[in-house]
Amino acid sequence: MATPQFILDIRAKAGDTLLFMPGVVMVVFDDRGRVLLNRRADTGRWALIAGIPDPGEQPAEAAVREIEEETGVAAVVERVLSVFTNEPVVYGNGDKAQYIDIVLRCRAVGGHARVNDDESLEVGWFALDELPPLGPIARGRIELALRDDPTWFAPAPAPGLTDRGYRAP
């Protein structure tokens, strides 16, 4: 299911007002160093695997669940790559949302990549030099997953300053 039931329940009361929601985004690698991607049914674009944690669910649990639900791949979470608030989005039905994404590096441990639900048109493993078209944020997240940097986050301006001065990975 593309929209979790708890979000539909909130929407029934809140209408299309902007909802600030958690999201998990996974950069999943296999033992050959390939990245797992899906071509999303809602946009037709290739993307990293992503989803919304259920109420009370830990981000790593949500990540493992979403990877399996969407792709049939069993995975483990290795580390947090970044925490980032995205720009607001407006969906075709007028609903507005803004996500704070927790981006996780994951490693496949079983299963076979396939379309496993109605959220994907295609699912596949891609070598880093053969990635399909991806937006700059997704590419930045893959690059971050290849480094051993500390967790990335948008820094807060020093007290009294107004310029944020950061770039999303």
TrEMBL record:
Q: Which CDD domains match?
A: NUDIX_Hydrolase (cd18879)
For this UniProt entry, the molecular function terms from Gene Ontology, in alphabetical order, are: hydrolase activity
Per the record's keyword annotation, is Hydrolase included, yes or no?
yes
The lineage's top-level taxon is: Bacteria
SUPFAM superfamilies with a match to the protein in the record: Nudix
Cofactor(s) the protein needs = Mg(2+)
Start and end of every Nudix hydrolase domain? 19-150
This protein's UniProt keywords: Hydrolase
Q: Please name the InterPro entries in this protein's record.
A: NUDIX_hydrolase-like_dom_sf, NUDIX_hydrolase_CS, NUDIX_hydrolase_dom
Give the PROSITE patterns listed for this entry. Answer: NUDIX, NUDIX_BOX
Descriptive protein name: ADP-ribose pyrophosphatase YjhB, NUDIX family
Write down the species: Actinacidiphila bryophytorum
